[in-house]
Design a protein that fits this description.
The complex is a heterodimer of chains A (542) and B (318).
Chain A (H helix, E strand, L loop, with lengths): L3 E10 L2 E11 L4 E5 L6 H9 L6 E9 L2 E2 L5 H7 L4 E4 L13 H13 L3 H14 L18 H13 L5 E5 L7 H18 L2 E6 L2 H7 L2 E6 L2 E7 H7 L3 H10 L16 E13 L11 E13 L3 E6 L5 H8 L7 E6 L2 E2 L9 H6 E4 L13 H6 L11 H14 L16 H13 L5 E5 L7 H18 L2 E6 L2 H7 L2 E6 L2 E7 H6 L4 H9 L3 H13 L2
Parallel strand pairs in A: 3-8, 3-9, 6-7, 7-8, 13-18, 13-19, 16-17, 17-18
Antiparallel strand pairs in A: 1-2, 1-4, 4-5, 9-10, 11-12, 11-14, 14-15, 19-20
Helix pairs in contact in A: 3-4, 3-5, 4-5, 5-6, 6-18, 7-19, 8-19, 9-15, 13-14, 14-15
Chain B lengths: L1 H28 L4 H6 L5 H11 L5 H13 L13 H36 L4 H15 L2 H15 L14 H39 L2 H8 L4 H30 L2 H6 L5 H10 L3 H29 L8
The chains are: A alpha/beta (542), B mainly alpha (318).
């Protein structure tokens, strides 16, 4: 007898069909992985179980949880289930907690609501639960507010809320997607332990096959609102019977074909960073205390050759983006020097920087937020052209935009459109077109594929590899995703607390990390093949 | 929290000082000679000079500013030319009408608007929401003096429940208090209506924005029913814009009520300042404006304190 049984579930929002004939069941104590790309209906399936769907949504079919017909249950019955028998953890820890209530209130609230416990008892239980999720009383008293905690700590609070009453079913919707790999591994461990301790069932929603392979007993794969394949995790992901499963697995481990640049440009450095340091003032504790500083980047030196592809990896907050901003001359170092094509950047005026800016461009993580929605693609892609010494006329400008669009696999006709007419992957192509239009020698890419689905990610990585080969543009790839770093870069730098702690050939560093920081990253990074090997070993073992 | 308050207080005092400079010097450079207005167009030059000496108008500007400032600090706002009584007394009489009127109007509008706004947000898109917001639209559109006359016609002329105008003073004991309250009731209602309409719309949109936040979903996932989520989680987060509007409305209600004061023949601050301006009674204008500036700064300070109480993120004295 399954704890949760979903049969023939269909869902429409207004006229749009969202889910079509979903079947899914979770046994007591089982971990079910729900995998799919964005828009596949994973989250909507979870919200149907909680009956927290948007207003206009209409569900048909059968959803039975622990003998209760969810779709027919009145709101009062659902309120009794939510937070008590079914707990839920969400993707975005930064916004999932009420900013005006203390963490103690927020954890104790559900306990009081469901058990009728008085305040001191509920607070004692909340205390114990926070302790359990790794927030000890000494550093994290109940009176802390969410804004005083980091993303990982906030996600622990959300988990404490969801698990406070030891629910029978825990639904975790992309619980680690917003966290760096080391935090991800810690949070996944915590979830696994809580599930084991309390014999909970877990519905783990993820776009990451490797995460699901590590965690789930069984896996359901969804696409366009339909279940493509479901079964025991190791078998499903190893045999890959369904063509879509195979495509997903291939895309998530995709390595673009790259001509290994046999250090062709060695000796001829494009970028030289020497002893760069960046300090930020910390707010003073009182008016009279001495001004303290926080060292975000600490004595960093490296060089990048023409056409070389280098990864900069590290945990969130380690100083990667600050370093990138200084290389792009968007921020000035406190000490040290940065030379681009032999010229020092740090003491140039904005006007003198123009020629350097032309030769270094940037691609950001979020393909949605980085365009003005009211401009046509033509204008968006043509933006960097003002850096050229000779301003092209309108006809020439359209020619250049068309070339750049062609370069990234879009058509010249696309320049008449607005950004909202494109998908996430296409928008990232537009960002790249904007970056290559001035024929730069260096592109700094800050997590350029982490907002994209795996199949799109594979295509964009191919595009990067292709441009690297054809245009001989050098890359500095900032990422926390080691799979991406491995796929697209020759060399890697591992950054930790503002310092470069390890540098070398990408594969060599990831296969044999030497420093603690690098080892921690490699150990925490989800790896599909490794997870599957371990899983089958466990299954076939004693 | 202390740092936050100290900072707000310092900003308030600085504002007050700048306002005093602006008020004094702007009024000084305006055309019109108070002495001439007091004595009429046919006054002899000798009489004019004598009066100006008596009033201190012949002394240097900076000196007069300093005198005025130190006077105010000790509670001496000068003497009115036209009423020939101390400004502080004139103001005190009028504040006894205007302040209770403002407080009544504001309490009334808040008591109507916030529940209506929350209710409309909770039932977004349904008939009740449409009706409530339609009513708010009408409330904004109706001129308040017209509404005031309507109220007078119904409650004073028709039912004879309340006085049609005038203010008997606060009188003696409970009876006197009741008479004063009755005289201010219709004016307060007519002032409250448009304020309530605006506030209800602000409350609704603030609530709707908050209700779309992730933490509302977290609260629902905890098992709280809609109503509990609304009151415990959404309201406090939606308060910041509501508080801002409340502060602005209170400032308006203190002195911007001249039309309603005229409809009801109330001796309020608005009428005092209007008369003082038309008669070039500069010392009264300066005194009243400074008091208003001070009270608005005080209200803003209160609003800032409320912000910090409502939202812990604001307590760190940015």
């Amino acid at each position: 007898m399954s704890l949760l049984e979903i049969e023939n579930l269909s869902l429409t929002i207004g006229e749009a069909p969202i889910l079509k004939d979903i079947d899914l069941s979770i046994a007591a104590g089982e971990v079910m992985g729900l995998v799919g790309e964005s828009g596949s209906g994973k989250s909507m399936t979870a919200l149907t179980v909680m009956k927290l769907l948007p207003h206009a949504a209409r569900a048909r079919g059968r959803v039975v949880f622990d003998g209760i017909d969810i779709l027919a249950a009145p709101e009062a019955a659902m309120c009794r289930l939510r937070g008590d028998d079914i707990g839920m953890v969400f993707q975005e820890p930064m916004t999932a907690l009420n900013p005006v209530k203390t963490i103690g209130e927020q954890v104790a609230e559900g306990i009081r609501w469901h058990t009728g416990a008085n305040r001191p008892d509920a607070e004692a239980r909340a205390r114990a639960m926070l302790e359990r999720v790794g927030l000890p009383e000494k550093q994290f008293p109940l009176t802390r507010y969410p804004h005083e905690l980091s993303g990982g700590q906030r996600q622990r609070v959300v988990i404490a809320i969801a698990c406070a009453l030891k629910p029978k079913l825990l639904i975790a919707d992309e619980p680690t997607t917003a966290l760096d790999v080391v935090l991800q591994a810690q949070i996944l461990d915590l979830l696994r332990d809580l599930v084991d301790e309390n014999r909970m069932s877990l519905l783990l929603i993820s776009h990451d096959l490797a995460v699901v392979a590590e965690m789930a007993d069984r896996t359901t794969i969804m696409r366009h609102g339909q279940v493509m394949e479901a079964g025991e995790t190791a078998r499903t992901l190893t045999e890959k019977v369904h063509p879509y499963t195979r495509r997903l697995a291939e895309a998530s481990t995709h390595v673009p074909a790259r001509a290994r640049p046999a250090d062709s440009g060695a000796g001829e450095a494009l970028l030289n960073v020497e002893g760069v340091t960046r300090d930020y003032p910390i707010r003073r504790a009182s008016l009279f205390s001495r001004q303290q500083t926080f060292r975000a980047v600490d004595d960093v030196s490296f060089s990048l050759a023409r056409g070389q592809s280098m990864a900069l990896v590290g945990r969130s907050g380690c100083g990667k983006s600050t370093l990138a901003r200084m290389i792009l001359a968007l921020d000035r170092p406190t000490g040290g020097s940065i030379r681009f094509e032999g010229e020092a950047l740090e003491d140039k005026t904005e006007g003198e920087l123009r020629s350097a800016r032309r030769h270094m461009q940037v691609v950001f993580q979020d393909p949605y937020g980085s365009f003005n929605p009211r401009h046509r693609v033509e204008r968006l892609v043509a933006e960097p052209l003002h850096l050229l010494d000779e301003k092209p006329d309108r006809a020439r400008r359209r020619e250049l935009v068309a070339e750049a669009l062609d370069e990234v696999g879009l058509s010249a006709a696309d320049m008449e459109k607005y950004p909202h007419e494109f998908s996430g992957g296409q928008r990232q192509r537009i960002s790249i077109a904007r970056a290559v239009i001035t024929r730069p020698k260096l592109i700094v890419a800050d997590e350029p594929v982490s907002a994209l689905d795996v199949s799109i990610r594979a295509q964009i990585l191919d595009l990067f590899a292709d441009l690297n080969r054809r245009l001989r543009v050098a890359y500095l790839f900032i990422t926390h995703d080691l799979t991406v770093a491995r796929a697209i870069t020759d060399r890697v730098m591992v950054m930790h607390e503002g310092k470069i702690v390890e540098e070398g050939d990408t594969h060599a560093v990831f296969d044999r990390p030497e420093t603690e920081a690098a080892k921690a990253l490699v150990a925490a990074a989800p790896d599909l093949d490794r997870a599957l090997r371990m899983r089958s070993a466990r299954v076939s073992g004693p | 929290m202390t740092a936050y308050l100290a900072k707000r207080l310092a900003i308030g005092l600085a504002t007050l000082f700048v306002a005093s400079l602006v008020v004094f010097f702007v009024l000084e450079i305006l055309p019109g000679d108070p002495a001439r207005i007091m004595l009429g167009m046919n006054a002899s030059p000798e009489a004019l000079t004598a009066l100006r000496t008596e009033m201190g108008l012949d002394r240097p500007l900076a000196l007069r500013y300093l005198d005025w400032l130190t006077g105010m600090a000790t509670g001496d706002f000068g003497r009115s030319y036209t009423y020939s009584s101390p400004v502080i007394e004139l103001v005190a009489e009028r504040v006894a009408v205007s302040l209770p009127l403002a407080v009544m109007a504001l309490s009334l509008s808040t008591a109507i608007a916030i529940p209506v706004g929350i209710f409309a947000a909770a039932r977004r898109g349904r008939l009740s929401d449409t009706l409530a917001m339609g009513a708010a639209q009408v409330g904004v559109a109706i001129p308040n003096f017209w509404f005031a006359m309507l109220l007078v016609y119904v409650f004073a002329v028709g039912f004879r429940l309340l006085p049609a105008g005038g203010f008997p003073g606060w009188g003696e004991g409970w009876g006197g208090l009741w008479q004063g309250f009755k005289a201010l009731l219709l004016p307060a209602v007519s002032l409250a209506l448009p304020q309530a309409a605006i506030l209800a719309r602000v409350t609704r949109s603030a609530m709707l924005e908050v209700l779309g936040e992730d933490y509302i979903r977290t609260a629902r996932a905890k098992g709280l029913p809609r109503r509990a989520v609304l009151w415990r989680h959404a309201l406090r987060n939606a308060l910041i814009p509501v508080l801002t509007i409340l502060g602005l409305q209170f400032a308006f209600l203190l002195a911007g009520t001249i039309i309603i004061e005229n409809v009801f023949y109330l001796p309020g601050l608005g009428r005092l300042i209007f008369q003082a301006i038309s008669q070039r009674d500069l010392i009264v204008v300066e005194g009243v404006v400074m008091l208003l500036v001070a009270s608005i700064i005080l209200v803003n300070l209160l609003v800032d304190v409320c912000y910090a109480v409502a939202d812990p993120r604001l307590r760190t004295g940015r």
